[in-house]
Specification:
The protein is an alpha+beta fold. It has 3 domains: 83 residues, Phosphorylase Kinase, domain 1 (2-Layer Sandwich); 189 residues, Transferase(Phosphotransferase), domain 1; 69 residues, Immunoglobulin-like (Sandwich), CATH 2.60.40. The protein is built from 11 helices and 18 strands. It has a 6-stranded antiparallel beta sheet with strand order 1-2-3-4-6-5, covered by helices on one side. Strands 14-13-16-17 form a 4-stranded antiparallel beta sheet, with no helix packed on it. A hairpin with a 2-residue loop joins strand 1 and strand 2. The longest helix is centred in the last third of the chain and has 30 residues. The chain is globular.
Length: 430
C-alpha cells in the first residue's frame, strides 16, 4: 500500500489522531515515519484542520531534540504527515524500568528544556509533554515528538483549538490545563518538572485512583520535596524541581533556557562537591561490601566453634521440638489464605469484572449547549451529569462553528468525575 510516493512497511502505533507507519521513501532511499489520519474517526473539516495544524506547527521547527517533518499530503481520502523515523524507545518505557542515574536524568531534562525554549520562541506550545511523547535513542539523546495538540500562537490567529487525550495524560497536566485556562510555555515546563520529579524520586508527584483525585492533587496538593527522604538528592536539585511544580505560573521558571541553566549549575556544583548521587552510590558500595564480608567470615568462624562436635551433649528431643515451635500466643487473628488475597486484588485491578458498577462524569463546556457523544451515541447537551459504566469511553463534544473536542476517558471508581471543556470558534484564517 502507498500514500503518495511512500510505501508502507509496517504499523508502528496508534494515537488519538492518527496511525503511525514505518514507510519507505524511494525518491531519497530512506525510511520515514508516516502519520495517517485515522479513518475510524468521524472525519470533519475541523478534525482535518487540526491534523494539518500539527504539520504546520512542527514543520516550522528545526532542532536537534525535536522530530523533523519532511512532507504533508493527501491520498486514499485522507491526509498524512511524513516525519523522520526515530529508532529508540518511548521514554515511558525507560522511566518504568528505572535504569537512569540522577546525572543522566538531569542531562536529558536539560535537552528537553532547551528544545521547549526553542519551540516557545517560535510561538508554539506543545501542551502534551509526557514520557510517551519523548523518544530515547540511548547515550542520553532524546527527541520530542507529537505536537498534535500544540497551541499555535500566531498573531493572525487569536482563537485557538483545544483538544486532548485524557487517558494517561492527567498526571502531567499543569493546574491551568486542568482548570481549562489559557496556557503558555510555562505549562510545558510544569509538565517537564513532573517528569524530572518522577525520574529522581521514582514516583509521580500527583497521584490518585481516578481523574478527580489526580486533578485535585494537581490543583491543591504540594508534593513531598525530593530531598526529604533521600540523602542523595541535593537541596539545590530539590528546590529546582519544586520551583518547576509551582501552582502559579509566575513562580515557575519563565523560560526553558532559565530551567536548563539552573540544572546545569546544579550539575556543576554537585560534581565539584563530589556529591552527585551516581558517584556517591559507587563510593558507598565498597565499605558496605567489606562490612558484609567481615560479617560473613565472623559467622563462619563462630559457627565452627559453636557447632556440636561428636560426643557433645545435645538437647533432649522434646526440648528441641518445643524450642523450635513458633509462638502464636501473641495473636489470635487467623492469617488469610493466599488465594483469598489474590482474589480480592483481582477485583480491584480489573474493573471490567464489575459491569454493574457506574461512575458519574459531570461535563461542563464553554460555551455550553454542546452535543455530547459517548462511544458515538448522542447523550445530550452540556452541562450534563452522565452515569456511565466503569471502563474506557470515547467522548466527543460538538458545537456548530466551533472545533470539536475528542478524548478517551477512563472511569475506574464510583466517584464523581468533573470534566471542564473549553471549545473555541473556528478561525478560517488559521
Amino acid at each position: 500500500m502507498k500514500f503518495g510516493r511512500y510505501e508502507i512497511i509496517s504499523e508502528l502505533g496508534k494515537g488519538a489522531m492518527g496511525i503511525v507507519h514505518l514507510a519507505y521513501d524511494p525518491q531519497i532511499d530512506r525510511q520515514v515515519a508516516l502519520k495517517v489520519l485515522r479513518k475510524d474517526k468521524d472525519i470533519s473539516d475541523e478534525f482535518v484542520l487540526r491534523f494539518l495544524k500539527e504539520a504546520k506547527a512542527i514543520g516550522r521547527l528545526s532542532h536537534a531534540n525535536i522530530v523533523t517533518v519532511y512532507d504533508v499530503g493527501q491520498d486514499h481520502d485522507t491526509i498524512y504527515i511524513t516525519m523522520e523515523f526515530l529508532e529508540g524507545d518511548p521514554f515511558d518505557k525507560v522511566v518504568s524500568k528505572g535504569g537512569l542515574g540522577h546525572e543522566e536524568a538531569i542531562n536529558i531534562i536539560i535537552q528537553l528544556a532547551g528544545a521547549l525554549d526553542y519551540a516557545h520562541q517560535k510561538g508554539i506550545v506543545h501542551r502534551d509533554i509526557k514520557p510517551s511523547n519523548i523518544i530515547f535513542s540511548g547515550q542520553e539523546s532524546v527527541k520530542l515528538t507529537d505536537f498534535g495538540i500544540a497551541r499555535f500562537e500566531d498573531s493572525s490567529a487569536s482563537l485557538q483549538t483545544q483538544a486532548g487525550e485524557i487517558l494517561g495524560t492527567p498526571a502531567y497536566m499543569s493546574p491551568e490545563q486542568v482548570n481549562g485556562q489559557t496556557v503558555d510555555g510555562r505549562s510545558d515546563l510544569f509538565s517537564l518538572g513532573v517528569i524530572l520529579y518522577e525520574l529522581i524520586v521514582g514516583a509521580k508527584p500527583f497521584q490518585g485512583n481516578n481523574l478527580a483525585a489526580i486533578f485535585n492533587a494537581i490543583i491543591s496538593q504540594e508534593p513531598e520535596p525530593p530531598d526529604k527522604n533521600n540523602p542523595f538528592v541535593s537541596k539545590k536539585l530539590s528546590n529546582i524541581i519544586m520551583q518547576s511544580l509551582a501552582k502559579e505560573p509566575g513562580r515557575r521558571f519563565q523560560t526553558g533556557s532559565e530551567m536548563a541553566a539552573a540544572l546545569k549549575e546544579c550539575l556543576q556544583d554537585t560534581r565539584m562537591a563530589g556529591q552527585m548521587p551516581n558517584q556517591q552510590k559507587k563510593k558507598s558500595a565498597n565499605p558496605l561490601f567489606f562490612m558484609i564480608l567481615v560479617l560473613v567470615i565472623g559467622l563462619l568462624v563462630g559457627g565452627y566453634y559453636l557447632w556440636p562436635k561428636p560426643g557433645q551433649h545435645k538437647l533432649p528431643e522434646k526440648q528441641m521440638q518445643a524450642s523450635s515451635l513458633p509462638d502464636h500466643s501473641a495473636s489470635s487473628t487467623p492469617v488469610p489464605k493466599p488465594a483469598q488475597t489474590q482474589a480480592s486484588s483481582e477485583i480491584i485491578t480489573k474493573p471490567e469484572a464489575l459491569p454493574n458498577v457506574f461512575a458519574t462524569i459531570k461535563i461542563n463546556s464553554v460555551p455550553d449547549n454542546a452535543s455530547i457523544y459517548v462511544d458515538k451515541d448522542l447523550k445530550g447537551k452540556t452541562p450534563m451529569d452522565l452515569k456511565l459504566p466503569i471502563g474506557i469511553h470515547e467522548l466527543r463534544l460538538s458545537l456548530p462553528e466551533h472545533f470539536e473536542w475528542q478524548a478517551q476517558v477512563q472511569l475506574s471508581e464510583k466517584d464523581d468525575v468533573p470534566l471542564f471543556i473549553q471549545l473555541f470558534p473556528i478561525n478560517q484564517n488559521l
